Amino acid sequence: MPNLIRNERIKLVASLLNAGAMAVITVGVFTPLAVSVYGIGEPPKNIGFLGNLSVVCIGSAIALHLIAHLVLEGLDDSDDQ
Questions:
Q1: What is the pLDDT of residues 28-44, one digit of tens each?
Q2: 24 Cβ partners below 8 Å, 6+ apart?
Q3: Is 11 within 8 Å of 61 (Cβ atoms)?
């Protein structure tokens, strides 16, 4: 039973990291894109900075997603017992 609890905790941490990756993509990529396309709010003053920010956010999201994969490698296989 303790392995099941540990596995669930590991899955929750991995889910949290993956949700964080999705949030970073939303805030750093989709929101500026919506501002530019739909004209919501003020137009960006520095397009170069906005492009660099999107690249950094995509990289951060990929890193968080890969860390979630690494966390999931810590799961115990209950079939081996």
A1: 988 888 888 888 877 77
A2: 57, 60, 61, 64
A3: no
Helix (H, G, I), strand (E, B) or coil at 73: coil
Residues 29, 51: Cα–Cα separation, whole Å: 9
Tokens standing for 45?
């003053």
Give a yes or no: residue 51 inside a domain: yes
pLDDT at position 34 is: 84
> Residue 80 falls within a domain, yes or no?
no
Q: Which residue has the tokens 């810590």?
A: 74
Alpha helices in 1-81 (DSSP H): 2-25, 31-38, 47-72
Alpha carbons 38 and 14: distance in angstroms, whole number: 34
Tokens of 44: 């960006």
Number of structural domains found in the chain? 1
